[in-house]
Amino acid sequence: EYVYGREAQTYGDLGALLAQEIRARAERWGPKLELASEGIRATVIGASQYTTQVSGSTIYVSPLTILPLRNVPLIAPSFALDGEDIEPSAVAAEIQALLRRLDLAEAGMPVAVFVPWRGSATFRRLDAFCQGLTTGLAALLAAGHPVVLAGDGDVGGLMGIHLREEMGLDNAIVSVDGLELKEFDYIDIGGMLPQSGAVPVVIKSLIFPAEPAARPQHQAGVVGPIAKPLSLARG
Length: 235
Hints:
With 235 residues, the protein is α/β, with parallel strands linked by helices.
């Protein structure tokens, strides 16, 4: 953020000074500095991890040639899916709010939506959710991007079929399930495994500490190391 001049506020660390020096050295060195399409919105990079999961087999991919997908940002809206009825306008509002907050509303790439499905997968509930989904993703769908759904239940196939056959959606659809994901993840979805009908999914995560580490308690005669947690000023 500081290297490209997209952030001016300081957060009490060396992020701004370090970025200025990196930029100055790069300019003295001579190579052209390309503008990154997105930043991580943090003053330090922090710890990251890659994990691999295999989706469930109740998935829907159409056409199969849409795979593989790489570096797809994930949003995890707080859908209200516990009740009997699902409100399409609430689903759309949750998606649009997150797209705006994460500067993905006009992204030149597909965006994956995490769906923690709860309750029965009746036609009425699926239809209400999918109506809200397509409304929330309208701008991305109009740009020709595929619908990418990732869930933790077993309704990936049903959602994909509903979007294609009941709603007549023309965009490519990738609807996978059986996954554990969270906001700020990026995912790679590989080609379908012919023997199982599943797909491999690589999850790229930044690890943000939920809360500062507690101050260590010292007892007489006992010496313990002092933990220095990584602090991310913005997440």
